[in-house]
Amino acid sequence: MEQKDISSANTKIKIEDLILVPVKEIKRDPSNPNIMKPEQMAALERSMLSFGDVVPIILDQNKMIADGEHRLDILMKYGFQQVPCFIVNLKTDEERRMLRQVMNKLHGSHDPEKDVQEIRQLYDKELLPELSKLLAKDEDHFLKVLSKSYDDIPYKENNDVETGEIFQVVVECKTAEEQEDTFNKLVEEGFRCKVLTL
């Protein structure tokens, strides 16, 4: 397994070669804490059918899965005998577990205003049903976010359009992450929200 170095002034980042590994050689970890519900697995399958297998499986030097068990299941369902993998040389099994934790949990946060704008673009192109399937979320979830963020999309509750006086509260947040969390909590509680960055 050849490794290439990308050097900068202060760090070196190893770049592993992508290789095809026979499925029968890959070892599974029954203690994997990342569990997907059937609807999430169906959404992952739709995503892979729509966009391809764009995230390789990560194995340690013993070919034990560090990340990608669900993607492997889907590839096997479609008859793949070999799958693209990165093989990472790790010192201990604990490092493999740490890598799995990072891969499953380290994600950026969405700027709520930009997120709503992007969802709005998909809504305008009538792509919310497809997004709903790809994320295993009900389409109403996205419509609710849009309707509480834009006045021009009617929001109905109990078949009645919400009307009447509007009272507003401004919540100051210290970070974009806090803003996103607050926005999402208020939307989930049924409040109509707009994001402002002052």
Question: Could you outline the blueprint of secondary structure elements for this entry?
Answer:
Elements: E1 3-7, E2 12-16, E3 18-22, H1 38-51, E4 57-60, E5 65-67, H2 69-77, E6 82-88, H3 93-105, H4 112-124, H5 128-135, H6 139-147, E7 156-157, E8 160-161, H7 176-188
Parallel strand pairs: 4-6
Antiparallel strand pairs: 1-2, 3-6, 4-5, 7-8
Can you characterise this structure?
It is a single chain. The chain is of the alpha+beta class and 198 residues long. The longest helix has 14 residues. A hairpin with a 4-residue loop joins strand 1 and strand 2. The strands form three sheets. A four-stranded mixed beta sheet has the order 3-6-4-5. The relative contact order is 0.11. The chain contains seven helices and eight strands, in the order E-E-E-H-E-E-H-E-H-H-H-H-E-E-H. It folds into two domains: 92 residues, Alpha-Beta Complex (Conserved hypothetical protein from pyrococcus furiosus pfu- 392566-001, ParB domain), CATH 3.90.1530.10; 77 residues, no CATH class. About 6% of the residues have low confidence.
Keyphrases for this structure?
7 helices; two-stranded antiparallel ribbon; Conserved hypothetical protein from pyrococcus furiosus pfu- 392566-001, ParB domain; 8 strands; single chain; 17% strand; 2 domains; 198 residues; alpha+beta; 40% helix; 4-stranded mixed sheet; globular
Question: What is this structure, in a nutshell?
Answer:
The chain is α+β, with helices and mostly antiparallel strands. The protein contains 7 helices and 8 strands, in the order βββαββαβααααββα.
